[in-house]
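Deliverable D2.4 — example input (structure tokens):
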């Protein structure tokens, strides 16, 4: 496991974390205010997943596990991204937000087939989960992570020989695919004293014929267009859309910016992620997808809205477009 590390990492553009006095006071007020719309009225639907032993040699398929976790099948290879599969994204799970689907997942960690790689975007609890990594550590041939994140995996029992760390601009080969580590506009840290001590990133996944982009967590910024110019067009994008607020818009895109970022990277089919699992912001739980669908329709963008566990085939004529969240809202 090689690493070139800095004491602190910085975004490419000036970025406010929205933590001024007035913002902090207003956020505390909002946190104390009860709003039933921040969670669905009951457990949301989950489609069971039964992955085949072999993946298709051509095409692009993605299966969303809620929030930012997804399984990607690209040209016969199988990659798992940001596998936070536990019930709560918190260092103290019994006080954190609980998963909307309860304990149900499309596939339990222990049931996963062998993966060519597990790929991480950053070390926040809602993306990097200790319990999930421990259950999956023998299910992956490689772990592809941003700079500084590998040490956490080693402490959790991952073989250091499986781990490679990458900075913005790095490219690495994974089972015949190229993974390009790109910028994101965000931050890192899991405690009070490690802010920005590890890197955060996006990923471009490049096959011989097909290409996929994963935004990681990010505010809107020029890096999306730069990535599109260098690596696009992409057949499929999985873009952050959720847990936003005007007070911290520099580090989490608003849904309309999600659609613009998809256009910037020259995306084909858009899947909005980073929602439908946990309440980490103050908006209604289904506001991200409602706004993203409206913006996509206005801009002529193809958008898929899968249920958790429902596979999206980016090369098929038909893909999930059901407004399933409205069924939960109206109950």
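Example output (designed residues):
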């Amino acid at each position: 496991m090689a690493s070139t590390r800095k004491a602190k990492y910085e975004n490419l553009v000036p970025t406010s974390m929205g933590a001024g006095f007035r913002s902090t006071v207003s956020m505390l007020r909002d946190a104390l205010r009860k709003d039933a719309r921040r969670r669905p009225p009951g457990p949301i639907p989950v489609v069971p997943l039964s992955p085949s032993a072999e993946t298709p040699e051509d095409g692009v398929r993605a299966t969303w596990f809620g929030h930012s976790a997804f399984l990607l099948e690209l040209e016969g290879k199988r990659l798992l991204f940001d596998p936070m599969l536990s019930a709560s994204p918190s260092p103290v799970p019994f006080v954190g937000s609980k998963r909307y689907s309860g304990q149900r997942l499309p596939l339990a960690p222990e049931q996963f087939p062998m993966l060519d790689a597990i790929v991480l975007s950053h070390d926040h609890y809602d993306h990097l989960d200790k319990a999930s990594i421990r259950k999956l550590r023998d299910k992956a041939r490689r772990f592809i992570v941003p700079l500084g994140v590998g040490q956490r995996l080693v402490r959790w029992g991952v073989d250091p020989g499986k781990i490679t760390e990458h900075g913005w601009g790095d490219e690495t080969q994974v089972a015949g695919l190229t993974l390009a580590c790109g910028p994101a506009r965000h931050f890192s840290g899991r405690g009070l004293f490690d802010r920005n001590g590890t890197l955060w990133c996006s990923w471009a996944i490049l096959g011989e014929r097909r290409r996929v982009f994963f935004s990681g967590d990010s505010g809107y910024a020029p890096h999306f267009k730069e990535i599109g110019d260098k690596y696009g067009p992409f057949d499929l994008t999985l873009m952050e859309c959720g847990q936003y607020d005007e007070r911290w818009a520099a580090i989490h895109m608003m849904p309309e910016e999600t659609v613009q970022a998809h256009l910037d990277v020259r995306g084909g089919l858009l899947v909005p992620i980073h929602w439908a699992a946990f309440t980490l912001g103050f908006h209604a739980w289904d506001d991200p997808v409602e706004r993203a669908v409206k913006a996509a329709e206005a801009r002529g963008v193809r958008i898929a809205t899968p249920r958790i566990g429902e596979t999206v085939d980016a090369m098929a004529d038909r893909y999930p477009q059901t407004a399933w969240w409205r069924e939960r809202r109206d109950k």
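The domain at 21-329 is CATH 3.60.15.10 (Metallo-beta-lactamase; Chain A).
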